[in-house]
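Appendix B. One record, verbatim.
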Amino acid sequence: MAVIYLKAEQSVCVTEHIVHLKDIGSIYCSDPELAYQAKQIELTRFSKMEHGREVFSILKLIELIKKQCPDVEVENMGETDIIVYYKPPKKENKALLYAKVISVCLISFFGAGFSIMTYNTDVDTEKVFDMMYRLVTGQEANGPTAMTFMYCIGLAVGVMIFFNHAANKRLSDDPTPFQVQMRLYERDANDTLIKGAGRKGQETDVDS
């Protein structure tokens, strides 16, 4: 008996309103004909002009495969519940995209600067620098000192190292803290949607 191996991701975004099995995961079978038939299985259809979302149980996918290919065994190698998002295709507006990028950069820049300034004011960093300068030189500081400049340089270097970016280049292959947090948020959001759909009976399962 031939075996079809199915590996689906927890969440998939598609731009075609007709969703086939090949659109949500990887399929492998030693028989190329069976693999092709499984990939062409239609899962659902969304409205062409509206965003949509549907949750599928892996059992539903196995049921559809068995209907199309009754003499095969299906092995699930991926998730047990899958969220399919549909976004209608639209023409990319480069001007709007650049405007969004610039807006995010400005907000991040001024927001980070404001946060650093308020933090330094709370702990009175300038006073600490003045005291250290007086202890070392025996004179009162008159304006910015070498420690102030080194603090600024160290702060900039520390931010680049922490966020793993210098200009448009990454310092290492490790994911940045932003990427880690976004993946954690995505996983938590998917878990919430899956559990909510299951409790409301909105998940597409073998009984539906």
